[in-house]
Amino acid sequence: MKTRAEDSKKNGTWLVTGANRGIGLAFARELATRGQRVIGTARQPDKASDLAAAGARVEGLDVADFKSISRLASGLQGERIDVLIHNAGTGDGANSVAEIEPAEIEHFFRVNVIGPMLLTRALLPNLERGRRRTVVGITSGLSSIAHSNGGWYGYRASKAALNMFVRTLAGELADKRYVCVVLSPGWVQTEMGGAGAPLSPEKSVRGMLDVIDRTTPKESGGFFDYRGKEQPW
Length: 233
Known about the structure:
- The protein contains seven helices and seven strands.
- By secondary structure, the protein is an alpha/beta fold.
């Protein structure tokens, strides 16, 4: 018998936020080569030429703007979404408690956790129509409380909150056989990771896609790296 992943491998619909560059764009490109239908979001869709060239349907979305979330959901009403990937995020920030600014912390939480929470809520009807019913939060190794060693206050705290949201969602939706996980992409050569990072976006994304494809409802609520290794909360 085919698994849910195998059944929808050639005709699934994936929505990837923040897909105009970096890891998000790598997701769109790799998914296109696998025959998936991709809806990629960008804050400035008219400037997302690389995303359009990858064959994705480009939609406007600013995850920090809750009206923007509502507009996207309205435009997708009645459509099926198999996998929702919360990739859009923001990083860096204060490295000492003395540097913390309220507006900065609020921005981290709006982009990295509150936006994904509200977007998931808005797109639940679309996910209900899908075969895979999968929600993925792209988190970070820096979100691990067990491994925290200081710095990046807003980023660490907001990504840890994203982890908790996805784990809580997994518990709520378990009876509907959803798969809800958070994945750490590793240290990747992106605008945030820098050119000296050891991983290319393509290698990281291929690894994460393999993890997504083999994850079942039994692993829902898990925290894994791009190789599928379970990570400490």
